[in-house]
Amino acid sequence: MASSLPDEIVLLIFETLAKPQWDREGYSERQRTLSLLALVCRRFHRLAEPLLWRQLRFDKWQSSTLRKVQRLLPGSGQHVRAMKATTKYRPYNDEQISTQQVAEVVRMLPTLTEVRLDVGLNNDGLFKRLAKLTSLTSLALVNVGISETMCREATVVFPHLVDLRLRQWTFRYNVPLTEPPVPPVLRQVDFENVAFYAKALSNHTRLLLNPALVESSNSETGGDIIFVPTYATREWKSSLDEICDLLGDGQLPQVRSFFIPDQVRDILSASAPEYAAALDNFLRACATAGVEVRWLADEAEDELVCREFWAYSRELAARRSQEQQEAQVDTVA
């Protein structure tokens, strides 16, 4: 039956089975399914092999792994579109990759459109290396240290980038004394997800096209801020107390919404009385200040951007567009 179907129909079926999966189990199942299909016959092998190589996941980043993949890659890596690489990175250890290894990947996989790196990379020059991926549309960096110098020098333009995700891109003890300038690449993407302390972006949030997603609050914070607290219960309480004080003093006039995971509400409500009280005080302060609180359903650990955030980004973009149009009308009048 399958042999009577045209290649276009068979390929459509294969592509349905080969939807991108980044979690370990989903990725393994995807690769196993495509591998079995490739063994059925030569025709299936010809159709399934490009899909088999379209997505690569490295659970342990090593140069030897890259060399092995390079030997096996068909078509000089032209089929690969997405790659995720991880290491068991911890601060202060030596298990880091270099920008030279990133350059090696760029040379090996020139057609990448999606890159995810969780590799403990602290070297400058990363954006310049990745800029050679001219088709890059999605970039996710976790545990990647971006220095103030790199922010100043990151003038590289990713012409097709629409999805930028930065998590833990520097550590608390590395926060510079002066606020790092926002490089052009951060101003041109459709949204910005920065799991970072708000202080480092406090003077620049109004420059961003979309809201900054930060993991803590600061008295200098301005602009449209979405709040995602850190994972320690004590820090949750401290952050909520701080926000209550800032709202009460009128120091967050631009804040319109807070996005908070359901787990924060559940854990604080079930914790010590002072933690539950901190949550109640926060909700009352938001209601008084006219700030909306949206509760987020639990998401996968490596997927902080959820449907509610995208919806909010679209609402904000529409609101800003309307404000600009009204301002132009007033100017003409």
TrEMBL record:
Spans through the membrane: none
Name of this protein: F-box domain-containing protein
Residues covered by the F-box domain: 3-58
InterPro entries, per the entry: F-box-like_dom_sf, F-box_dom, LRR_dom_sf
